[in-house]
Amino acid sequence: MDTIFTTAKSWLTDFFDTQTKKEIETLIQQNNTEELKDRFYKNMEFGTGGMRGIMGVGTNRINKYTLGKSTQGLSDYLNKVHTGKNIKVVIAYDCRHNSDTLARTVAEVFSANGIKVYLFSELRTTPELSFAVRYLDCHAGIVLTASHNPPEYNGYKVYWSDGGQIVPPQDGAIIAAIDRLSYEDIKFGADESLIELIDRQVDEAFINASVKNGNFHAEGKDNFKIVFTSLHGTSITAIPEVLERAGYHNVTIIEEQAKPNGDFPTVKSPNPEEPEALSMAIKKAEEIGADMVVGTDPDSDRLGIAVRNLEGEMQIVNGNQAMILMTKFLLEKQKEKGFKGNEFVATTIVSTPMMEVMAKAYGVEFKTALTGFKWIGKMIKDFPDSQFLGGGEESFGYMVGDFVRDKDAVTATLLACEIAADAKAKGSSFYKDLIDSYVDYGYYKEYLVSLTKKGISGAEEIKQMLVDFKENPVVSVAGSKVKWIEDYNTSIAKNVITGEEKNIDIPKSNVLIYETEDGTRIAARPSGTEPKVKFYISTNAKLDKAENFKRVGAELDAKIKRILSELKLEM
Fold first, then answer.
1. Segments in the chain below pLDDT 50
2. Does 284 fall in a domain?
3. Of 127, 186, 346, 560, which one's alpha carbon is 20 to 30 angstroms from that of 109?
4. 13 occurs within a structural domain
5. Are 426 and 457 contained in the same domain?
6. Number of domains into which the chain is organized
């Protein structure tokens, strides 16, 4: 505890502002050891893509000093690798508290280091930031956001010149540059001549590109009703306009959730993965007889979708289901134009295996990556002669083409509407098309268990849970023997029945996956952005005809319940 008090007192020098020092002095005077410990027991980590955490004073908080230090390190790195060049960066921010002022601070630090800054004049979506990096020919980009985290969080994501999040080797080199610094090394003295506000020109280019990539001129748009909610976030700046320009005029916006607000007052969590987040929009859809509900998270990179099921009721489709239909639609459209042989689709190691089955059926290359769209973006950069059609992950993110290099709820929303409107015009529906896909490729059903473990003890508990999961191997799952154990920490996949071993040719990560003889998969990993440990369960069965959808679905539900019981996880 003495070390923590010493670290806290180091923030009482004249370098730090009066309000910061006053807050720390109060905590010290109150002898609030637990609060001081949580704020100062470690430095806010700049991970492989940036930072995310609770806002406040301290080394383990998001504030002008922790972000300033990261920006100073990034500036040092940019000036080192681009010596003599006119370096440019672009900065965007979301609706969260302090996002605008923190973005301004970041811009000032860049400018103090001689770097030209394009700063959005108001909040904008993360996909627009990714697009703007290449549109403005920048060397890097920053977005101030904590995505779908609770209101007390904020964050800082770093993008490279290709529009994708930073990946090796840049991430490690930037982290090293940051770690070499003390807070007193931060240059806060802005050069205002290097800061330029941007807005409508980039907006127009992004919206036009979104319509171009997501509009397939579906039939039936005049007869298709959409309810849209931005969940108090940034998508209100883009999605209504994109839908209008693509020909969707029957769009009802949930006005109570349309105004950006970092408190997210109408939802428990601004996360479209949570059913409650879409409840207000679904209620409105039932009232007006809408065909589809779409809701996005605060920075507009994830989308939640609800459509009418076989009984005509609004039902949420999960990220895996939406990804399957979006990818199938893109594959069909490419098939109509003719495959060139260099196309590929992609997903992550914890998403549905159905993606690979479907890609093989179309004869298209399938690539898989670690969790996070930065790795899908890296694929596009690593294979410049290949054409990326689309790809997604189970956590409600999707990317259409490569004009944006991160998950993009703006274009994905338009694509989802295209699929549903086209299906309705042809006498089917989004939901019926999903069932038909299960008949064609197998009925895959997934389930996610996410356990929150906060604080220092929580971090240790998460670490131990994963150690236990590895050191006490699962032998069988719901009556099916475990065949493969994939350990992404060691990059080795082992067939425990034959003893065969294969190298896993993707970067190391703290992920362990069990796969059984019947294709059931269980993956465990810590969240990279929240104090959570996640268990992903995937089951599958043959669906011979659509009429048996409910019966087979019930059988898979029972199997998932059995798996959860065996693993001592709650359902």
1. 571
2. yes
3. 127
4. no
5. no
6. 4
